[in-house]
Specification:
Largest sheet: 3 strands, antiparallel
Strand order of the largest sheet: 1-2-3
Low-confidence stretches: 1-7, 61-65, 379-387
Radius of gyration: 31 Å
Order of helices and strands: EEEHHHHHHHHEEEEEHHHHH
Helix content: 40-55%
Length: about 375
Amino acid sequence: MAQNQKRREKGTGNIYKRDNGSWVGRLNIGIKPDGKPKIKCFSGKTEAEVKRKIREYNAGGFVVEKQKISVETYFMNWLRVYKKDHLKSSSYDRLENTIIHQIIPNIGMIQLQQLTSDDIQILLSKLKTDGYSHSIVKKTYDCIGAVLKHALIKGDIDKNPMLLIKPPEKRSFPQKEIRFFTEEEVTLIIEECGREYSTGTPVYVYGDAFILMLNTGIRIGELIALEKGDWNEEEKTLHIKRNIQLIKSRDEDGNPVSGCELAYNTTKTYSGNRVIPLNQNATNALRRLCDAHPKSNYVVCSANETLIPPQRIERTFYRILKNIGLNKTGIHSLRHTFASMLFAKKVDIKTVSKLLGHASIQITLNTYIHLIENADHDAVAVLDNIF
């Protein structure tokens, strides 16, 4: 039985204390369809707490009970509502893949309000143990952090469990060995790229594309996006200003449908928009590529002069490697080889970073530290011939 019933204060409804010591507030918020008053109840440990809740409700900012929602539902809703119109298509695809493949299978079934720092730490540790790279684990960490920060600001959680989680350290992950070709292997690749049938027809339609990549260090997406107007033949330069990536095909609501499509993007970073000086090998390869399809605006294109999916070029590259007896490796190895040749010629790291279009010198240093260290050892070894 309730006691100590208080006189009503304007706007606070009827507040009273229960026999068990807790306080209750009853606020008339309208009329039901049957004509009876519609009452909303508030409870708290003190009278002041109940009054505060009623004031917040009247101000439009009070939710009686936090919405019960799973991590899976909340994260996917955040992605579609708050990220769809603010990310490049390729970036959206990567973020969606992180949520679908790394987050949902491990913590997607947990209620958002019940998600703890232990749950998150166990997830990150499991990904590392399962052999995922630092890049994937870091993307998972960043995604969870962004969503939970959003949830805290929005009032959907009371505290952020990510505050106890430290970002994964790259040095604690096995370092992936960068594959680049030796001078002998480069010679074999170039010879194979230029091989012709007895009729004089090139064996590989895109052979010159690989020679161009070897001599410029451009990415495959930058290669596909090249237009003839990007080549300044007089100044012997190539302007890299766009990128083409394979993205998921989606319906009008943004849901993935079968198949993929090619999409134009700006370069990967601001520094990616760059002008690369061309040596004679690159110039000759460019000229042959442009002459092969005189009516097309693209430097590299299909037989009907349309854009080429990156997989088609990659398949040709794998065939070349197989035919000269080299193990299969990604086409990005051509870019690594370009960098390694520059370091071998003692080109400074700032220049290499600029030519590669890296966002910072630190990225270049982290990627090619072993090449730089080897160069230092070679330099010191020269002393053996002096003393």
